[in-house]
Every structure is written in C-alpha cells, then in structure tokens.
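1st attempt posting a full record on here, be nice pls
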Amino acid sequence: MKAINSPYPEASSDESILYSAFSLRPKHLDPARSYSANEAIITGQVYEPPYQYHYLKRPYQLEPLSASAMPEVVYLDKDDNPVNANAKNIAFSVYSIPIKHDILYQPHPAFVKDENGNWLYHHLTDEQIANVEDLADFEKTGTRQLVAADFVYQIKRLAHPEVHSPILGVMAEHIVGLKEYAEQLRAIRKEQGEVDLRQHEISGVKTIDDYHYQIKVYGKYPQLDYWLAMPFFAPIPWEAEEFYSQPGLINKNITLDWYPVGTGPFYMTENDPNRRMVLTKNPNFHGERYPAEGEDTDKQNGLLDDAGKPLPMIDKIVFTLEKENTSYWGKFMQGYYDVSGISSDSFEQAVNISTSGEFGLSDEMKAKGIKLETAIAATSFYTGFNMLDPVVGGYSERARKLRQAISIAIDQEEYISIFANGRGIPAQGPIPPGIFGYSEGKAGINPYMYTWKNGQAERKSIEAAKQLLAEAGYPNGRDKKTGEPLVIYMDITASGPDSKSDLDWMRKQFRKLKIQLVLRSSDYNRFQDKIRRGQVQMFQWGWNADYPDPENFLFLLYGPNGRAQFGGENTANYQNKDFDKLFEKMRTMSNTPERLAIIKQMVDIVRKDTPWIWGFHPKQFSLYHEWNHNVKPNLMANNTLKYRRIDTGVREKLQSQWNQPILWPLGIVIIVIMLMVMPAVFIYRSKKYKKHHFPST
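the predicted structure (as tokens):
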C-alpha cells in the first residue's frame, strides 16, 4: 500500500522510477555548450558520444558506445605521408571512427514531414506558435537514423559564433582547421547574418560515408580518445537546430538548451525549472546490455547479477526542485528520494567515526538498510584570483605576495574539519590524488603555503602571511601609500541560511589579515556570466575530472584557455609563458618519467604565482536505500543511470512502514472538541427540558 503522504501522487507501481532532485536549473543542455556538473546529470543520459567508460572496470577503460569500435589512428608527417607511431616527425594524427548501424533518434517534432515530404514544423507561423507552450504541445513526433554526418555537424557547432562553446579554444589547438573554420563562420555571420553549417566544411573533419568519419589533429594528442567520450562530441541532427532556430520558439524557451535531442536511453519529457524535470525511457533506444565483467569484487558485491540484461533498467527519472538541504534529507529519510549525499547538518546522524578515523554508518542508517558508498574524488575545489584584476591580479612581486598571504590565511584544514566533516584533504596544487603527477608526502607539499614538520605538512603561520602582506604594500591590511583599508570582493553563488556559517567563516579568515571582504552573491547563471566577462576579483570554483589525465587539470591554467579573452576554462585568466610552453610539450606525452618531471616544473610555477587558493580534494559519500541495485561510483562517467535497477516493491513497502499516519494527536483533538462542546450540549438540553416540562403561562 502506498504511503498516504507520498509527494508523487501520479507514481505507478507498474513503472520503475528513480527519484532525485536539483537545486539549480541547468543553464545549458546543448552538448556544445554544457560543461557543468548539474547539467551533465541530464546530458549524460540523453546524448551518446562515440565512446564511454566501462561501468565496472578499474582503472577506467574506454569502450564503444555509439561507435562500433575504438578509433583507428594513422600518423602522418608534414607532407601527409604515413609514419610510425613512435616517429619523431609526426605532424598529424588521423582518427577514423566507425559508428553503429540502425541507431534512431528519440521521438521529436523536428523530424516530422507532411504527406508531400515537407518539414511539418520547421517554418511555423505566429498563429501556430501561439498555441505552443512547451515541446509536448506538438501533436506529431518522428525520428530518423543516426549517420556519421551528425557527428561532424556537432564538431562544426563547436565553432559556431552563436554557440560560444567553452572548449572551442582547446579543440582549435588540436583539430586541424577548426580555428580557421571558426574565423570563417564569424566572417560569414557578420556579412550574411546567418550561417548554415552544412554549406561549409572543416578541413580536418570529414564524413567518409554514412557510418564512418575522420578527425585529423595536429601531432599526437592521445587525450582525444577521452574527449570523444564527452557530450561535446555527441551527434546532433541538423533538423533539430533548424527547428529550434525559429524565433517564436526561442521566445518560449523551446531550445536545445531546454530540450535536448539524442539517441540515448532517456529523453526529456518535462522541463519545468520551478518544479521538476523528467527523463523518460526512449522508445527508440537501440539497446545495450549490462556488462558481464568487472573487477574481482564486483561479483561478490552483486554487481554482476544483471549481466547481459537489456538497458536501461528504469522507466523514468524524476528530478524535483529542492532548494534546501534539510528538505531533501527529510524526504530521503522518508524513502521518497532514492539516493542522498551527506551535508554537514546530517553528517552526525548518518555517519560514525571510529577511534582510528574510519567512517561507518550510524545505527539509524543501518536499521533502515541504507548503504554507504565512498570514493576519493578526482576533483579540486579552489578559490580563484582574476589575474586581469588590477589589485589581486598581475605578475608583479607585490601581487604575488598578496595572493600568497591570503592563501596562507585561509585555513583549509579548519574548513574541511568544520564544513566537510573531515571528508577531504588540503590541495597542494591543481592535480588531485589518483591522477598522474600527484605527489604525496614531503615531496608533494606546496612550499609557499606549508612546511614539513613532524612527518606531516603544516600550514605556515598567520605571522608569515602578515609579513607577506606588508611586503606586498598592505601592512595591517592598509595601503601603505594611501592609508586606505584593503577591500577585496569575492563573488559567490551561496545564499540563504544553509550558507551563512560558511560565509561568516570566510570573512573571519580575511579579518586575520585585517582585510575587508565584501561577498557578492548572485544566482549561478548570473555568476557564470560574470566569470565569462572577467567581471570578478575573487571567486569560488571547482573542477571535476573529465578524464583521468593531468592535462585535464593543468589546462585550466593554460593561457590560451583564458575565460574572459578566449572563452576557455581558465577562469582565473592566468597566463605564464613558461607554464604554457611546458604545457604544450607535456600534453601529448605518455606517462613517462620525463612527463612527470615536466609536470613538477609546471606545478612549481603555479604554486609560486598562486592564481588559485589551493582548496581541497573531497571524498565523496553517497547513501543508497536498499532497493537500489547496481550501484558503483564511477568518477569519470556521467551516463550511469541506465545501469541502475530499482526494486519498486521493496521501496513501496518500506515507504509505507516509515510513513504510517500518527493518529493519536487527532484523537486528542477530538476529545478536546468534545469536552468543549459538551457543556453547550448540556445547557441546550437543560433549556429544552425546562421548556418542555415547565411551559410559560
């Protein structure tokens, strides 16, 4: 029997539905633009790039997804003559990618034609659009087969001047002709106003036939395999872009950023940013099987019980808007959300820490059958300095010492202890544990922030920070020349009661140096815009590894990737010619001792320049109710919901047990009402009795 207080009245016991939540609406669901974690949870389920990470195997291993095999790579010299893979004169690498046959797109109105073969919805009139409020209002939907040209079309979109893809700067350095193609499109748009990507080709990207395409890159770039597992390289049908380009639909937010079009196991059927988003099983999905092999422990952990079964194993994914952690946690404990992280407020309720420092579930969690999964995240949280800012930016000794002073004063160890319940380690540089180039122990400390004492890293004293601040020209937090107090502005997205203590703590860190900190809060979308324009002084940011290679972290500090100047992922707009030169050499190398030595030089450079306050690398804690099956953390993949299985019978039974109506307060209320009413009843009956037996004369 369903619990009477279920927040999902429409839920059917016939459907297998996974329930989750979101706190911020994804800004971009267009795969050429999307690059945020809250967007990847959607795009990962809808789009299918050529490759994916094997769900169970470790170390992480790529396998075909929409491709039929791993790419064939041919190396060429400057005259396009084939050379050996180990040759020193490699000028180009050509990746040939075969794709699977008989893959269909999700149902979508962009594919519908009328009886005469004309597009039904590509040229809508104002009258037709007036009756449309969302994508579901279109009466008819269609589909078509995936072809290699769709992959090429998406790569072209990375260069489209109206798309503003965040990886254009990175990819233009690698894909032959992409930079020139972007310049060509900008010129065409300036002259003609519109650009039809089908009429213009990239010299280094070619459609061979319906099931083969090629990408030509400069030199050797082994990381391209990883990029080909990201939604940036997922296919997009030109019909979808043509459909969504209609101004009337754009005015109603019916765009690729709101309603993605893919071939994956799910497609978006509802997008209401003020209430919920829904992904539904794609009826046109080409099919995939649950993996039959993994790590040695996977079988005993039940992760191979569904080997060979068709995917996806759930029918629908419902994301509900939850702005407060406490509300989400309460519903998780009632069984209305299937999975939960652990906030600081709920940590003590959920987790016990042994005397040896080991984490385990509390008795309350065990009693509910909840399971805990942990993983060291390939993630860096940091506070960035805008290197274009005249106060905290620049490369003078003054600016460098100012940044170092602030970095010492912000006590990451204290932050981790208070706000992350010890779930993390202080960062010593941009590379997290588990990624090639990360060093542990004494050899891995940041000498500008730490000293090695008694066998461990110890943060430098606040006195050392004050000395650096004075040397930077701000003794006691005042400008030595003007006497004015130093005021620093930090842009944040945090707001509301949940973040007050966090922000108070940050102000306290700056007060140690007598620096006035002004926190400027805005919603995430506005915050992203300010970062893109370079209109910040300091900001808080984080990066999850897209792929398991140090290049994926070091490129965040590569000059040509500057966000404000080039639209890349270098949000600090940091630029150091020595670092950039080493990066260009390192990025195409295999993981050799020589590459490790170069990475060490690069890390030493950025430690000294301090474009970031090196924050911390978190440890992920996730709680799962016992009705969840096939759960294994995968830090690289975003498309893992298709593997999940929900035992809806167990969920409904436990929800009913955990949400029994409490009737005794109602009984008390009834008794109180009766006690209040009874005197009136007695008085009424008394008056009636007197009137009947003693009539007036």
